[in-house]
Amino acid sequence: MTTTTKNRKIEKIPQENILDNASKISIKEMDIWYGAFHAIKEVSMKINPNTVTAFIGPSGCGKSTFLRLFNRMNDYIESFHFDGKIKIDGKNIYGKKTNIEELRKKVGMVFQKPNPFPKSIFENVAYGLRIQGIKDKKIIAERVENSLKQVALWEEVKNDLKKSALALSGGQQQRLCIARTLAVQPSVILMDEPTSALDPISTASIEDLIFKLKEKYTIIIVTHNMQQASRISDYTAFFYMGNLVEYNKTELIFTKPEKKQTENYISGKFG
Amino acid sequence: MNNLQKNKLIDNAFKTIGILFTYLGILILAILLYKIIAAGSSRINWDFLTSLPSRKPEKAGIYTAILGTLDLMMLTIIISIPIGIGAGIYLEEYAKKTKLTTLLEINIANLAGVPSIIYGLLGLGIFVRFFNFGGSILSGALTLSLLILPIIIVATREAIKAVPSSLKEASFALGATKWQTIQKVVLPSSFGGILTGIILAMSRAIGETAPLIVVGAMAYVPFVPHSVFDTFSVLPMQIFTWTTRPKAGFAIAASGAIIILLILTFVMNGVAVYFRNKWQKKLGN
Q1: B163 close to A (CB below 8 A)
Q2: What pTM was estimated for this model as a whole?
Q3: Which chain B residues are within 8 Å of A71, Cβ to Cβ?
Q4: Which class does domain A2-266 fall in?
Q5: Coil, helix or strand for A80?
Q6: What sign does the CA torsion over A244, A248, A250, A251 have?
Q7: I need a surface site. Which of A267, B44, B216, B225 has the fewest CB within 10 A?
């Protein structure tokens, strides 16, 4: 126990130095457990609006678990419990008054494997609107079109909107899933290894998309691919064994990492 | 003979035995169908379908039995489907894993194997006597519903379990509530499986005789039921009664009624299978 406490002290990061404006998300001394397993160990961090933040680290380091905290997707795991504070837009998202559905409209999520509904392309994108009770066909059609245009899928599918989404290619399906998330008009988008199931060309198009999306959204992306993190993110957080080892501007993490562990990981010595 | 040849021989032997057994089953069924059709087809005509039962075998018809079967099935569907699917959804999606729910689950699976006569006695005690519904269509339908509920519940749960959790997560992540997710994602995706369970359950219910005898289905009902509280007869009941009569003509009439019952079952299943396939095509699988 004494060694971990020591580590924590060493690994504290001067947050003020890297954050230059008001933070969108702030996490304070967050611990997460699955049963007896301590998945995240006293992590504190702040995330700026309209930036792309990448979470990197070897498998099992807790980065996906941490990401799922932001839209409360861990709630469905019975053994999950946590201790700490997380605020989005200044509001405690685990407060008693928090409406989970409202939170998830604000904090969208894109998953590792494309998971379109077995419905038409149009209905996939319209899903989030329909569950909100929006019935106006014009509004729905407009938002569907806009969302599909934002992910550069509109030209490819505009004549096939009634076709099943399952007929699309993997890369198209993932862009559809992003469009589906955008249609709800969130301000934060969580991405859990969104390109790990895709070929290089589809990956490149999703990366371009992420780069464009940060104008309007705050994006947090979990990735195994270090090149990807360095290409698209503004900030990078390196997790190891449940600890936030280093968190800084991406260019600094990849050129002048402060910690030996970070350097070893990004240079491919372990992981 | 070396090992390779031996393995090949065993492989072929199993293949042959497998084919033999498959055809044996079909053959027996074909013989049965042939005998029934040969014996009963002469009786099948419009009069047979629209005549009331009679003491004279050549005049006896199955009008009331067919209507009784159709009414009973309809009412059974209306009662058992919402309850069965509802219970399945609850157990799979809402119920927390406690000792009580585990006990419930085991018991529901066991209930599917309880002999139907037991359900008949239960129906007699509860619906006929306690609620005083008498030997009515309602009592019969409630009893049959009890009988097929476990099948529908188990099938619903299996079908829901087969829906990938990634789809549910996608729905939740878009801000859907649990019920919205069930309604718009889980049920449409599991509809085919649930329908298969319902087909099985209905096929079992339409052929049941024993529990209905206990509940009070009549062998001789000279009028068409007008309300759910009327007495009734059903096709299996009619067949059962006719086969116990000494006059040779009744055996022919019974064969005719069996053909009609088989046709009803096939049509019912056919319609359900049609809807299931159509649904699956719509989903794009």
Answers
A1: no
A2: 0.81
A3: 173
A4: alpha beta
A5: strand
A6: negative
A7: A267
